[in-house]
Amino acid sequence: MKVLELGCGNSQLSEELYKDGITEITCIDLSAVAVEKMQKRLALKGYNEIKVLEADMLNLPFSNECFDVVIEKGTMDVLFVDSGDPWNPRPETVNKVMAMLEDAHRVLKPDGIFISISFGQPHFRRPLFDSPKFTWSVEWNTFGDAFHYFFYVLKKVSPDKAQVLNFLYTC
């Protein structure tokens, strides 16, 4: 299984995946400092198979359909920091989020899964995830007591299957 983590920062997610036997992991971050620190930390632990690259999630440097799983953990939330009204985000914000989602969709293999772990509530995220540009089914779970976060699972499927699955999930 090939996994791509968007906006890895100093996250330990890749290490935990590696410990669980997933060894084909690529982590990207826009920050050269974060990438260098992550590379050093992983090398010290002997996790040399994990690739850490400086790259922009809005313009992924990977070929089409090359990852089984793409994960972002709070990275999309960063794009919403200066978005204005959450019910009507600025066009620049929507364009950036859509660029991220389009590239995640592009690099996913058929039946690949995009995982988004976010504070963004479903009524704000679903309109973006449900764009006709995408052929994925969308499911989510809510976690937390005082602060809620949302675990979205978007599975890339055929367009017809996505439409049926999304209809059934919203019923």
TrEMBL record:
Keyword set, alphabetical order: Methyltransferase, Transferase
Record GO terms (molecular function): methyltransferase activity
One Pfam family cited in the UniProt record for this chain: Methyltransf_31
Keyword Methyltransferase among record annotations: yes
BP GO annotations: methylation
The Methyltransferase domain, residue ranges: 1-120
InterPro entries registered for this protein in UniProt: Lys/N-term_MeTrsfase_sf, Methyltranfer_dom, SAM-dependent_MTases_sf
Family stated for the protein in its record: Belongs to the methyltransferase superfamily.
Designated name of the protein: Methyltransferase domain-containing protein
Biological classification of the source: Eukaryota, Viridiplantae, Streptophyta, Embryophyta, Tracheophyta
